[in-house]
Design brief:
Helix content is 1%, strand content 43%. By secondary structure, it is mostly beta strands.
Length: 312
Amino acid sequence: MVKDSKFTDGVIEFDIAFSQERGFMGAVWRMQDFENYEEFYLRPHQSGNPDANQYQPVFNGLAAWQLYYGEAFSAPTSYDFNQWIHIKIAVAGKNADVYIKDMQVPALFVEELKREIKPGRVGLSVGEFAPAYFSNFSFTEEKNLQLKGKPKKQEPTPEGMVMSWTVSSAFAEKSLENKYTLQQADVENLVWKKLTCENNGVANLARLQGLKNGNTVFARLSIVSELDQIKKVRFGFSDNAKVYFNKQLIYGGSDVYRSRDYRFLGTIGLYDELYLPLKKGDNEFLIAVTENFGGWGVKAQIENRDGIRIVE
């Protein structure tokens, strides 16, 4: 971290060299403290692959690459090993161009930086894996910077996507061991806050808190049904989950890193589904979401909302 630096918009440049060993090395900016900043890093061991690098926001000390993945957050790039590569990151408001070797065409355009636009410090980062060498680091503040990347047409939010949750304060995952029915004592001391989802329906739970008081939260939906009926809900989470419907445990699952196969990264998606036996009147849908590493999130979609209302 550059002591006493102040950076909102402008250009960060440096040269970097690394081997093909597994590593995560790059730059940070708009750094409020060591737990809150924007970050871009390279993955030399994924050279040429779609996830050869990564933009991610860090909230409350928690990485988020399992929530923000794909072409909007990384770019297929082939690296030259054990020799200098020039990197330039141009930041303007909610967007960023990232140049790797080619300084004329950005390798990656970040359409939406996820943290608020707020001045902070700049620096370099290397994960606890392979080392990297840096040289010629510089940063320049520049207002009204014109980026080359252009936003793509935004896809509409899928119908029925849950766009906000009521989220509890954190607690220990082990408190739910063998807990098949929730009692009032299990929730009465929790503090609840509303969390708005991203445009794609992902709720980044780290926006509200870190792991100081526990690694698990409840994400809650209140569903009012006009009659007794069945509704399908598709959902995803990172990393572990237990679903309680009207206080009864009806699902448990794990999407931790490599839990599905050796290349499964634990990325969030609508991989699971349940059929909720709604009763007429008020119903409560709770997902206990546990963070392991790489992203703390949840998303859900109720495809047919005829005859129901979500209370926010």
